[in-house]
Specification:
Elements: E1 7-11, H1 18-28, E2 32-34, E3 38-39, E4 54-55, H2 58-66, E5 70-76, E6 79-84, H3 85-93, E7 97-101, H4 104-113, E8 118-123, H5 127-137, H6 142-156, E9 164-167, H7 171-186, H8 189-202
Parallel strand pairs: 1-7, 1-8, 2-7, 3-4, 8-9
Antiparallel strand pairs: 3-6, 5-6
Length: 205
């Protein structure tokens, strides 16, 4: 996948706070676009179709898989989630940076399809803190929380496959770290070459 923009992938165990960090950074960094995932799970209270997810049927999801519409897709806790290939590729081609909120399964697929993707893993401070955060959300049963904590054990071991790690002890510092990764990638020579050459040319006149 060739591009002019940068593709950022943010993963974490459920409850570690990646969605909060992503949306705070989206509010602060211009020309950064969030890719809304497709999912077969039902909407939760307050979620809006097209803003939080595209909520689709199993049949439609299967049809999209068959058409190769997804850059990545995975099944998580019994529901499927996928990222629109067309949306991501169009944004990158237009020079926009795209950020994905996906799990470790999806991140591995993205890396296979886009070797230049920037992978960022968000860790909770500890298992106990993650359990406390999951309980405070009040959106899962005790059984669901146990499943999420069990999954977190194996997911966290995968942090070594990522380029950057953020330990989300407090939201504000973690937001600054995520923002720093995005801004630093924009300052790479490869990304700034055209603008830098224009400046350098003024010294050759």
């Amino acid at each position: 996948m060739s591009s002019n923009g940068e593709l950022f992938v943010v993963s974490s165990p459920s409850g570690a706070g990646k969605s909060t960090l992503i949306h705070r950074v989206l509010d602060q960094v211009p020309q950064l676009v969030f890719s809304v995932s497709y999912t077969t799970r039902p909407a939760r209270d307050g979620e809006v179709h097209g803003r939080d997810y595209f909520f689709v049927s199993e049949k439609e999801f299967e049809e999209r898989i068959a058409r190769n519409d997804f850059l990545e897709w995975a099944e998580v806790y019994g529901y499927r989630y996928g990222t629109s290939r067309e949306f991501v590729e169009d944004c990158l081609r237009d020079g926009k940076d795209v950020i994905l909120d996906i799990d470790v399964q999806g991140a591995r697929q993205v890396r296979e399809n886009c070797s230049t993707a920037v992978l960022i893993f968000v860790l909770p401070p500890s298992r106990r803190e993650l359990e406390d955060r999951l309980k405070k959300r009040r959106s899962d049963s005790e059984e669901a929380i146990r499943r999420r904590l069990a999954a977190a054990r194996s997911e966290i071991e995968r942090y070594r496959e990522y380029n950057y790690v953020i330990i989300n002890r407090e939201v504000d510092p973690a937001v600054e770290e995520l923002k720093a990764v995005v801004l630093a990638r924009r300052c790479r020579v490869e990304r700034r070459r055209e603008a830098a050459e224009a400046v350098a040319a003024t010294f050759r006149e």
